[in-house]
Write a structure and sequence with these properties.
about 230 residues, alpha/beta, Rossmann fold, five-stranded parallel β-sheet, about 10% strand, globular
Length: about 230
């Protein structure tokens, strides 16, 4: 068995649409890595910047212009990441510790890019990477793995999470047309930006969390477990 604690330092990102199991996978990695890695998740709802994100997800900013909505919402999330980095994990990252994140800049590419015409996607990706990694100076991920769960399955998982109360879903989670568009933008960004894609279902049902976890470790850290 490979030693799970031998993964190199750097920033590793678990990405995916709502209900794909990112949080579950993050916790399973936490159980293996322990204190040898830092674990972060975005948005940080317990911060002042997270309050702005919560207001956005609650639909309080009724932005009718999709282009303005794309770039304004991107900024909300980017500032949340910047504050998290500067106040929480910058020292660990610079010291060479392994940082594992659920969501990151990559989520802007998935969720916000869909508001633009497809002909503008390349320009947006260029702007996004320059804005967050160069202008704001937050770290660029060493590896991104997109957990690809079909929308129909992830919606069932979300409904189970909320005990069948559909009103608990935020504006993204309840909009299946939007989420299908987000999957398209995610696959596009994965190809353009070099993300790995990890299929998380057999087409009808989700794969077990344990099987996804094993494949995630291999793709993200080149570690074969077992």
């Amino acid at each position: 068995m490979s030693d799970i604690k031998t993964a190199a330092g750097g920033l590793y990102v678990i990405e995916g649409l709502d209900g794909c199991g990112k949080s579950t996978q993050l916790e399973m990695l936490r159980a293996d890595f322990g204190l040898s890695a830092r674990f972060i998740s975005f948005p940080n709802y317990n911060s002042a910047s997270g309050e702005i994100v919560k207001d956005y997800l609650a639909g309080k900013f009724d932005e009718q212009n999709p282009v303005a909505g794309c770039y304004s919402a991107s900024s909300f999330y980017a500032v949340d990441r910047y504050i998290s980095y500067k106040t929480d994990w910058e020292a660990d990252f610079k010291a060479g510790k392994c940082i594992i994140a659920a969501r990151y800049t990559t989520s802007n590419a998935i969720y916000q890019m869909t508001k633009l015409a497809r002909s503008e996607w390349d320009a947006y990706l260029e702007w996004l990477c320059d804005y967050e990694y160069n202008k704001l100076g937050i770290p660029r991920p060493q590896k991104v793995v997109f957990l690809d769960m079909p929308i129909e399955i992830s919606q069932r998982l979300l409904s189970d999470r909320y005990g069948g109360d559909e009103q608990k879903k935020d504006i993204h989670e309840k909009n299946t047309v939007f989420l299908k568009n987000c999957r398209e933008s995610a696959l596009y960004a994965a190809e353009k930006c070099g993300w790995d894609i990890l299929p998380c279902s057999d087409g009808e049902n989700p794969l077990s969390a344990e099987l996804i976890s094993s494949r995630l470790r291999e793709q993200m850290f080149s570690l074969r477990i077992g």
